[in-house]
Design a protein that fits this description.
single chain; alpha/beta; Aldehyde Dehydrogenase, Chain A, domain 2; 2 domains; 7-stranded mixed β-sheet; 23 strands; binds nicotinamide-adenine-dinucleotide
């Protein structure tokens, strides 16, 4: 049995806490490795090393720090296949989807190569008589990130690339479900020229997270995961005086207007609802056709496509639409929610409950499910299912449809399919959700924009990547300077105003 490690001060280090978690191969259900779960002492050791290494890294000029990112991009491209394979083996997603996971992270690293521009600050010449004023963005010190299982390459890179290029040290606590790719990324950053101790990986569970929350040296915490944990980390981290940004769960609605291209809408729902087995925070999990006639046409087009989805292990290459879910517990939770939907009276148009894959009977595969006639009081509507289950809630008008999306507690992403510009514009303006697609089902912003939801999908002010990341990972310092020859008056007792 493979025993995974932490990555501390440039070395793979065995866990000393004596506690481990199983890392499964979701396709076979077998335990393929054990990952150590750090205790407080192990986390504190990593923080000490980070704190000692960080000032020298912050003193490296931004251009040189950006060059490490340039080399890292080249190494990610060199090792793309290896990274994708390791990612699929622990997560279960298909190989092309795993490569996409790495690619979307890589694009954030590319954006971070612009750090010299992003960090150059502001300057006002002659803000007053003989007085100049300038603002600098300085690194925070030691920063930390806690990441979910569903994007084990992209989300760590969302965080550590901007943190590090800004001159911080970063401690990554990845998901204990798929920790191998984060460890590989840390190795590649050092191969790219990053000094030891600036990026460390501490594997663990709640104990390691609490050690991060209560550590006085750590200045900021980034979190992505489920909403209850996001709320806990945001509340506790803020009470400890840290800068915190937390991203939580989702229930993304796609509204289908009567004038939409129904073939296009059905294809969009297929990829957005079932891709990565629905384990995406930007997956569409609720389809809202407007009018019964639209709903009937949609279901008629969608149901055969859902029935024909190919489910299998990543080793089947491009011949698979989606793979297993991440654990047996996740599978059980999804199937329990499906049962609750049936019990509550929703119509299960495509029933994947009996799905089983020959040769992979112990794998965590879940067949595709499509519900119609779901109502907003049902658990399958209210809760995040995070599986290959799409719920259709019929609305009788556009107002009812937009109101439904607006009333849901989550506000990560949403989409509208229509040919009408007025409706699309009204939707984009009024909706209280952070990422909006118009005839685009998964509107994930590119690296140079920012990523983030509203409502219970986010806690904190600044989004991931884009310009917000440079704000989150730096503090502003503003200097007002006047040289002695300019000081001609005596003491000044009222607040200075520059006239
Ligand atoms: P999770 O909340 O179970 O775990 C996320 C991280 O928190 C992991 O590193 C885990 O070790 C840690 N953790 C788990 N329980 C903890 C506890 N009790 N105390 C402290 N830390 C704890 O989430 P997950 O299952 O890994 O990921 C799926 C969730 O993430 C979904 O809800 C999904 O919507 C969400 N997600 C959100 C976004 C976004 O940008 N909004 C992106 C990806 C995933």
């Amino acid at each position: 049995m493979q025993e995974l490690t932490h990555y501390i001060n440039g070395e793979h280090v065995k866990g000393t806490s004596g506690r481990f978690a199983d890392v499964f191969n979701p396709a076979t259900g077998e335990v393929q490795a054990k990952v150590p779960l750090a205790n407080t002492a192990e986390l504190e050791k990593a923080v000490e090393i980070a704190a000692a290494a960080q000032p020298a890294w912050a003193a490296v000029n931004p251009q040189r720090r950006a060059r490490v990112m340039m080399r890292f991009v080249a190494l990610l491209n060199r090792d793309m296949d290896k990274l994708a394979e390791a990612l699929s083996r622990e997560h279960g997603k298909t190989l092309p989807d795993a490569a996409g996971d790495v690619q979307r992270g890589l694009e954030v690293v590319e954006y971070c190569i612009g750090a010299p521009q992003m960090l150059k600050g502001d300057y006002t010449d002659s803000a007053g008589p003989g007085i100049d004023m300038y603002s600098m963005r300085q690194a925070l010190g030691v920063t930390a990130g806690i990441t979910p299982f569903n994007f084990p390459a992209m989300i760590p890179m969302w965080m550590f690339a901007p943190a590090i290029v800004c001159g911080n040290a970063f401690i990554l606590k990845p998901s204990e479900r798929d920790p191998s790719v984060p460890l590989m990324l840390a190795e590649l950053m050092e191969e790219a020229g990053l000094p030891k101790g600036i990026l460390q990986v501490v594997n663990g569970d709640k104990e390691a997270v609490d050690a991060i929350l209560y550590n006085d040296t750590i200045q900021s915490i980034g979190f992505v995961g489920s909403t209850p944990i996001a709320e806990y980390i945001y509340g506790t981290g803020c009470s400890q005086g840290k800068r915190v940004q937390c991203f939580g769960g989702a229930k993304n609605h796609m509204i289908i207007m009567p004038d939409a291209d129904m073939d296009q809408a059905a294809d969009a729902l297929l990829g957005a609802g079932y891709g990565a087995a629905g384990e995406r925070c930007m997956a569409i999990s609720v389809a809202v056709p407007v009018g019964d006639e639209t709903a009937d046409r949609l279901i008629e087009k969608l149901a055969p496509k859902v029935e024909a989805l190919k489910v299998g292990p990543y080793t089947s290459g491009n011949d698979v639409d989606y793979g297993p879910v991440v654990t047996g517990a996740a599978k059980e939770n999804i199937l329990n929610l499906v049962e609750s939907g049936v019990k509550d009276g929703a119509k299960l148009v495509v029933d994947g409950r009996d799905f089983s894959l020959q040769g992979y009977e112990d794998g965590f595969f879940v067949g595709a499910h499509l519900f119609d006639h779901v109502t907003t009081d049902m658990d399958i509507y209210k809760k995040e299912i995070f599986g290959p289950v799409l719920s259709t809630v019929r609305a009788q008008s556009y107002e009812e449809a937009i109101g439904m999306a607006m009333d849901h507690e989550y506000g990560n992403g949403t989409a509208i399919f229509t040919r009408d510009g007025d409706t699309a514009r009204d939707f984009a303006n009024r909706i209280n959700i952070g990422m909006v697609g118009i005839n685009v089902p998964i509107p994930v912003p590119l690296a140079y924009h920012t990523f983030g939801g509203w409502k219970k999908s986010v806690f904190g002010d600044l989004n991931q990547h884009g310009p917000d990341a440079f704000k989150f990972y730096t503090r502003t310092k503003t200097v007002t300077s006047r040289w002695p020859s300019g000081i001609k008056e005596g003491g000044e007792f009222s607040i200075p105003v520059m006239e």
